[in-house]
Hints:
Layout: H1 3-28, H2 38-68, H3 74-105, H4 112-115, H5 120-129, H6 131-153, H7 163-185, H8 204-210, H9 213-223, H10 237-246, E1 263-269, H11 278-281, H12 289-296, E2 300-307, H13 313-322, H14 346-352, E3 356-361, H15 370-376, E4 381-383, H16 405-415, E5 425-430, H17 455-476, E6 485-491, E7 511-514, E8 522-529, H18 533-540, E9 563-567, E10 572-576, E11 579-583, E12 588-592, H19 598-619
Parallel strand pairs: 1-5, 1-6, 2-8, 3-4, 3-5
Antiparallel strand pairs: 2-7, 6-7, 9-10, 10-11, 11-12
Amino acid sequence: MHRYLKLLYAVLIGxxxxxxxxxxxxxxxxxxxxxxxAWSIFLALLHGIRFDTSIFLTIISPFIVLLLLPVNSQKYHxxxxxxxxxxxxxxxxxxxxxxxxxxxxxxxxxxxxxxLGNDYEFIYTMAKTYFYMVFIVLAIIAVCxxxxxxxxxxKVKDVNISRNSLIxxxxxxxxxxxxxxxxxxxxxxIKPISTINAFVSGNNALANLxxxxxxxxxxxxxxxEAVSKDMYSFYDDRQAHEFIxxxxxxxxTHPYTEIKRPNIIFILLESWSSYYVDAFSGSNMHLTPNFxxxxxxxxxxxxxxxxxxxxxSISAIQAILLGIPPMDNIPKLGFGLETIAGSxxxxxxxxxxxxxxxxxxxxxRNSFYLDVIAKSxxxxxxxxxxxxxxxxxYPDYKASQFGWDYETYMKLAEVLKNxxxxxxxxxxxxxxxxxxxxxxxxxxNVKFPHDINxxxxxxxxxxxxxxxxxxxxxxxxxxxxxxxxxxIFTADHVLGNFxxxxxxxxxxxxxxxxxxSFKGNQKITSSTNHVDLPPxxxxxxxxxxNLSEYIGENIFCKDNNSYSIIHTWGSxxxxxxxxxxxxxxxxxxxxxxxNMEQDEKDYLSKILLSYYQESYNIMTKGKK
Length: 624
């Protein structure tokens, strides 16, 4: 047999293991999938081959390299194939364990197996509980070993060691290696295939039918450290829950009660630090006159102490749309979080209660996997850079790697044109022009000598971004839905490049809630955070029944004794009433004021640790 053909058979045998286990999951847990059409199930099964191939070729790639070498030794090939068999056996055992686990939680293993790696008592108990299954699997592997021996014994044709043949072998090595690399990445985009790509159908059951436990586990472990079951266990779970609950306020209201079933437009502004916005900083930079006008005129409510939980856009999106704060050793949304997060889905909650849901971002559709994320978390419509047409003249339209805000706003105006008549809508827009490198905007908005990496370059894009926002408001102010709409503006994170801010101001971002139907103007100084926005939005929509799914609190309920939590890489910080304390999850770190009483430090530490414990428990509720 030709060595390349034998190698192909070996790969196909391995992939068959994945397929058989997937079909077993589908058959045994058929009730989980029966609500879906036969065609969608077939597509999910077919899509699963992509994930199987990616992870399987990743695992056996060293063997492929060894078998592609032009070695004329039957013994050499036999040894390599026999070394492959234990790998196949381990893969089979792991997939069987995953299939059993699937029956309990309706999803695949992620970080749990690694977390249990040192819990020998648990592993022993499970092995005893499923002894019959262990015996059956081992027996099947033994039988397969008999047939594998016959397969390994098949002789391969010797390689001609002439110069031309060796060159030919080298070319085949490069060609096959390239094909393997493509299948491992399973994507021609910059980013390789990820767990979130399985959720393209927007259906959790079908996504889990597509995935396999080996892919979810290894992707999780390579991108995140395994989460110990004790990592976020500082107190008794009930004690932590009741303590956090005692800090929340009840029976509060908001100023927009006269707007029944409001439309909600959420604008997430790329890198808008409070530092550069006069309405929040008290400075006179005059970079954001339109935003300042909304904040200062009737209808605007300023939250002057609002913090982003981290300095990453995906962390902000995760906090706003799922209510889950960034946490050490917990993957981000789009990078594995979806495999362990249980509840708290804002867009789905709104959709289930009669809202149309729209997501649009200035960047490319697959940036942060947001195209797939948006669909998987309840957005019915999604638009990205590829869907947005150029309108204005720019020095170089393609220079903005993260899109142009004006065109993005105009796209949203177009999408919303016929909405808000039969039912309300929730629209989420993420801008991009103010992301470095700062592409030079249209001429009327260039106020400073432009440079793509300088503060002046940022200021020009900020002026442009603010002008674009003003043009958007003008564009839609005569629409029928306008007066019944509440606008929420905040930033994903601070700029962080040029402003010299001390902690915690270096995490402070603007938060403005505005509606043309609100006649008042307020400034609220309580400490707020992105994780507070999901329950706030649900409260504005009159949906107050599911707020226990969120660690955050409706910002209209908070007072000056409320707190905000910031994740600072390997540690976290709590901000409360102009005081703050940092904690490593094991030890207290620095605090302000420096002469803070120990009792106050202990109290703030208790809030912070209970917050993360409760966050973890809420996140994994129904998923453990």
